[in-house]
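User: Show me a protein chain along with its predicted structure.
Assistant: Here is one chain, sequence first, then structure tokens.
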Amino acid sequence: GFLVERKVGETGTYLHLATLPPNTATYVDTSVQDGVTYCYRVKAFSGTISSDSTNEACATPRPSTSPGDGAGGW
């Protein structure tokens, strides 16, 4: 499976966000707020063994400008 971790801001502390089953290809974080920077990293695990974390990916959600575009997420 996969462990998804998130921190608020580029200097925050990573906290557990989600545990995903094997073969998961995407994850949508629907708890973000517009204008706040979030950074993510992922670890793969099997039993009690986990990989090193991925490189972090950071983004700042913005309000949608497309008509009919649903709530955000990252």
